Amino acid sequence: MSRITFSVPRTYSTHYDIYAVGYDENRFKPENLKHIDPKKQVRSEAEASLTDFKATIGETSVHFSNLESSIATRSMLVGLGNTSKLNSTSLRQALTACFTAALKVKARSLFLQLNLSRFINVSISAYEFGRLVAETASMVNYEINHQKTEIGGYKPSVRLEKIDVCISTFDDIQALESGLTDGALIGEAVNLAKDLINAPADDMTPKALAFQARAIAKSSNNSLKVKVHGPKALERMKAGCILAVAKAGLKEERPVEPPALIELNYKPANAKPGVKLSLVGKSITFDSGGLDIKGTANMRDMKGDMAGGAAELAAMQVIAALKLPITVQALLPATPNLIGSRATKPGAVVYSMSGRSVEIDNTDAEGRLTLADGITFAKKNGATHIVDIATLTGAVFYALGPNTAGLFSNDKSLSDLVDESSKAAGEQLWLLPSGGEFNEANKTPIADIKNSGGGYGAGASTAASFVLLFAEDTPTVHLDIAGVSMKQMQATGFGVRTLIEVARQLSQTTK
Ligand code: BES
Ligand code: ZN
Ligand code: ZN
Q1: Are residues 181 and 213 in the same domain?
Q2: Is the distance from CB of 67 to CB of 91 less than 8 angstroms?
């Protein structure tokens, strides 16, 4: 994975491939353009206005520099729209467009001068600006972890290597620099999550996930600690739900892909007292549906059914690197959901770690089973706040589409905190209902609960209600990311940034 070097240079001795300058849309209004003497107009501006560039948010216009003395081969105009209305969402959009356009012309080095300090009323801090720059650039720079070979015709693509931010962008250069550092950490973590999700399911088994957790802990200067509970330990813990999903992958003589409950702990010395945030991430390393097997099209993306777990691992890496003052435990109940002669049959009744009996009405509703035991484990380990994140239901896609994840909660204040965090992080969540009538839909005559709402409808809400039942009265937020975690069969890394921000905000609030 290629990393970008970000800096705020004090002198400009280097030459860049591209020089990006920000523009307020006012400059390109016809009534303003007509006052400019064409002879005095910067050539790139003149060219841009000829191509109808209006400097709206997300618009870019790339030109060759006309002067030999220019600091860059190309220059880019970056639309900032009405700068007095610029906020982190629109700035993120402008930056994403800027870096995407730079990559399109194969730029390796970029000089960024958005001139924000020139525009009055811009309500973005130097830190926030730096963070957005490094975060979006790192994310745009992502290249899927493919297995293309040179012999097959693959040529390494050009990626951004160096981004320098103009020193006059903000007065507080230190804040700008620390924003750049943190933004790069966050962007790289999103890319790590994408790599884990994009890896083929045979490569990203529970064992491989545990290996990744250990690698993250190793590079955290010992601030993260890993424990892995294998099949025997899961039996001792009476994790009947996880074991039911794991059954087909767990042949006694020669386990094919045995389950693992992976635990990653972060407990800094200055942790906020009385608070333990538990993150529980759905970590189904491949979801075939089990005996209620999926159809071809629906199975194709199911290597990504551990996207919740991947998001947590990546978030933990950043939480530790930022040294956030809060205790966090990440839990990944990891297992594939496979078929085979030992696979759990529909109609099976199992006992969850909480002691509740569960009828497995549908083996394809496996995520909520693993989350149930994961959440019980979190509670037994003293969680005061739980956030679970899961590619849980196809239904959430029909409810909210490809860009918004579903938020469900049993606690208004945690739900508000997560909602605010997602906004600050640039990810979209929408509160959906749970409990009440949806609990009724999960009832069955033969066990305490069943793992599907049957024909009730509102599949995302019945699934959420199942999960939240196991949280009991521990403040919990459930995020259903099934609709947003993959696009065109590629991971989006959704959730990483929200989880980091949740840990940050929870470490600060007095609640
Ligand atoms: N992993 C799937 C949900 C999913 C669907 C994730 C599409 C990503 C993209 C989950 O385990 C599942 O199969 N859910 C079923 C539940 C049903 C059987 C009650 C679903 O949503 O159809
Ligand atoms: Zn499933
Ligand atoms: Zn699944």
Answers
A1: no
A2: no
- The residues near 341 (Cβ < 8 Å, ≥ 6 apart) are none
Per-position DSSP letters for 321-351, written without gaps between them: HTT-SSEEEEEEEEEEE--STTSPPTT-EEE
Q: Give the residues of the chain that fall short of pLDDT 70.
A: 1, 34-41, 117, 119-121, 251-255, 510-511
pTM (2 d.p.): 0.89
Q: Are residues 167 and 221 in the same domain?
A: no
Q: Which two tokens stand for residue 211?
A: 């290996």
362 ligand 1 Cβ < 6 A: yes
Question: 3-state class of 230 per DSSP?
Answer: coil
Q: Residue 414 sits in which domain range? A: 199-508
The verdict on the CB of residue 452 being under 6 Å from ligand 1 is: yes
Residue nearest to atom 14 of ligand 1 (CA): 393
Nearest residue (CA) to ligand 1, atom 22: 394
Lookup: tokens for 126: 């130097």
Cα(421)–Cα(502) distance, integer angstroms? 6
Verify that 184 and 88 share a domain, yes or no: yes
355 and 456 co-located in one domain: yes
Enter the tokens of residue 49: 């206005």
State whether 221 and 258 are in the same domain: yes
Q: List all residues 6 or more positions away from 432 whose beta carbon is below 8 Å from its beta carbon.
A: 396, 399, 400, 406, 407, 408, 460, 461, 464
- Verify whether ligand 1 is closer than 6 Å to residue 305 (CB atom): yes
| Active-site annotation, residues | 294, 368
Whether 165 and 213 map to the same domain: the answer is no
- Dig out the tokens for 80 from the structure: 């900032």
d(CA 233, CA 178): 43
Ligand nearest to the CA of 458: 1
Q: Which residues are bridge partners to 78 per DSSP?
A: 22, 60
CA of 455, nearest ligand number: 1
Domain count, the chain: 2
Tell me if 324 sits within 8 A of 277, measured CB to CB: no
User: Does the beta carbon of 361 sit less than 6 angstroms from any atom of ligand 1?
Assistant: no
Ligand 1 atom with the shortest distance to the CA of 485: 8
Mark whether 154 and 214 lie in a shared domain.
no
pLDDT tens digit sequence for 483-499 = 999 999 999 999 999 99
Identify the domain boundary among 192, 207, 233. Answer: 192
Which residues make beta-bridge pairs with 396?
none
Q: Sort 55 into a burial class: Cβ within 10 Å, 0-12 / 13-18 / 19+.
A: buried
CATH number of the domain bearing residue 181: 3.40.220.10
pLDDT for the residue numbered 62 = 96
Helix, coil or strand: residue 128: helix
